Amino acid sequence: MPRLILFLLSSLLLPAALAGHAIALGYTPKYPAGFAHFDYVNPDAPRGGSLQLPNPDRRTSFDSFNPFIIKGTSAAGLTALMFESLMTSSDDEPASSYGLLADDVSVAADELSVTFRVNRAARFSNGDPVLAADVKFSFDTLVSTKASPQFRAMLVDVKRVRLLDMHRLRFEFGRRNPELPLIIGSLPVFSRKWGGGKPIDRIAWDKPIASGPYLIESYQNGRQLTYRRNPAYWGTALPTRRGMFNFERITYRYYKDEVARLEAFKAGEFDFIVENSAKNWVRQYLGPKFRSGELIKSSFRHYNTAGMQGFILNTRRPQFADPRVRRALGLALDFEWMNRQFFYGQYTRLNSYWANSELTASGLPGPDELKLLEPLRGKLSPEVFGPAREPSDTTPPHSLRANLLEARELLRQAGWTYRDGALRNAAGKPFEFEFMDDSGPMLRVFLALARNLEKLGIRGTPRTVDYALYQRRMDDFDFDMTTLRFPDSQSPGNELYDYFSSKAAGTKGTGNFMGVRDPAVDRLIDAVVASEDRAQRVTAVRALDRVLRQGDYVIPHWYSAEHRVAYTRRMDHPQNLPRYYSAEPWMVATWWIKP
């Protein structure tokens, strides 16, 4: 789906001008030219064996092999296994990228263009060479109106693309944007022959013609899909591919819900599972197979920014338009009680859009932040210049009762008063909303929040829908409240336009689900994107974090700094862990089946 692609784009960032094998933001890349392999892989990992996996997210079926459009539900694994890009990121650096399809990258001294040279050895799955014209075709297709609008938002500063010869092309920019060369380097590349000339939005079941290590071998009616490693894969010896993609076959089986998926794992139907439920982790990963070692339960430390997860409020809805109302709803969430009763004390409350990192705003804004915020003072709440907004707390001397009293006062100020058995506005309309979700585990959390909201006279009604309808309604911004997690990034940049800009708020299919329309936010996103080095970027992100938190667009949830996974004993993994990674993509890329 486009959301997965956004995750890949947002994880890559840029440097000062240079030419060569790699680029990094504000520092020298860790790996020099001619490096052998990434430190977090086993270069001698054995190849072979079949990996069985469940649906990796909330998709319960698929109806397309095209992950670049809004229409339909694309199959799991497509982007990572089949579509390669000019460059690829390093998972043990916050903002570095190294050559993949491109064997050389050159950023102009004025930072208004970047030139890539395509590796002459690169081949598509049909045997055709990957040429500069294919890269340009992929770019032109992805920024067209027929592809997901997220690409256009990310690449709005690209003015033109020039083919220099068969293997070189130059992207020219309308303005300086230090991140843009790496965003371009991360774009998926596919053959001009894919789809037989059909426009991108008409391509559904045509198997991709791309350059990645796997091919689609078989599939069954949206329920199962098997990839086979391409025996003619061109990139096996590259330093950015050595020790990676070791499974001969990878099969995804689709399950209708998380209960069925967990029971299938314990029954031996697949090999690896990521567990996001603290309750399940404590109470379900038990039994003879775990005691015998047939199934292994393990936690892996990571240093990712936590990203924002929470109850998302659609400010396009009139009941959520007032920030005082949004703040009041947040005061009704009792995280400390939930952590004890539901989560076995395993979580930390999210206090930032970039928690667990140096990007988190804290205390009063520092001098560097004030340089960005002061020119916007007339557009900002005075509270932005005070201590950074923290989520509600019920740890003594704080209490839920005190928080609800504060919430009631905020609601009164916003024109909502309790009468005739409900909280009502001046026109007498009761405060009601729908919570939309496509899975069961979050329901009990919402119901705990809803019970507290009832004390204020607010009625929240849950509605569970299937994933296809959920995705369609999200693309149309047709919801009141839902739960969502924004992808984490160690170096935020252009993806912020998609999540938080005023332009994205009015464009269906973008990631601005909350409907943020704030000129101050727009200016701060510009400051993040224009950052010349890591220090500037950190400062700009902190200022943006401060303003977004003050807007109360989300009721923050919680996070863990560990990946909880379970797997079969026939699997093995490298001893060195990366620093910034997601559990399943890391496993698919670097693990192997024991001989």
Automatic annotation (TrEMBL):
Keywords: Signal. This is ABC transporter substrate-binding protein. InterPro entries: Peptide/Ni-bd (IPR030678), SBP_5 (IPR039424), SBP_5_dom (IPR000914). Residues 1-19 form the signal peptide. The keyword Signal applies. It comes from Chitiniphilus eburneus. It holds the Pfam family SBP_bac_5. GO terms for cellular component: ATP-binding cassette (ABC) transporter complex; outer membrane-bounded periplasmic space. Gene3D superfamilies: Dipeptide-binding Protein, Domain 3, Periplasmic binding protein-like II. The keyword Signal applies.
